[in-house]
Amino acid sequence: MQTGLIHLHNFLRWVILILLVISILKAYSGWQGRKVFAPGDKKIWLFTMISAHTTLLLGLYQVVLGRYGIFSTTLPEGTSVMKDKFFRFFWVEHPAGMILAIVLITLGYGMSKKSVSDEVKYKKAFYYFLIALIVILATIPWPFREIVGRPIFPGM
Ligand code: HEM
Question: Fewer CB within 10 Å: N-end or C-end of the chain?
């Protein structure tokens, strides 16, 4: 089950990235094209938020009870979390960055329900989603990253 949950966490990264890019493009074209806010855009933003929240739950499980979880691992002797690059990444940097990104995605989706002009909805959502994308790209354990690098697709 543990392996399956990591694979799902890994796979959902691609779902989030694809949906987030579509959300950004839709917000940008709505903003620049001065479009009337479309229910279809709200739906895509909602799916982006749901996939992010699902990944958050899986991530919380990993960081607490996963194979390198806080309650299932002991740190190597003589080191501390902030001194160990591996654990600093998976216990601090990765969760903090991703939680920030998920908050931004939630705020972006929230713009669809705000009683502001459609231009403001699209513009603010665009910036929330764009910053979220940058943070996610910066805190994913890409395979080329030293020590913390992980497979690009589940199980590879
Ligand atoms: C947008 C949100 C997130 C994305 C895109 C993401 C992406 C990833 C990816 C691609 C991996 C590597 C999986 C593998 O080894 O195959 C990973 C591992 C991990 N993630 Fe996330 N993550 C997200 C959110 C979170 C959050 C919020 C937490 C914790 C609160 C978290 C905790 C972890 C942990 C502990 C691992 C290491 C699991 C292990 O190898 O045992 N992640 N994440």
Answer: N
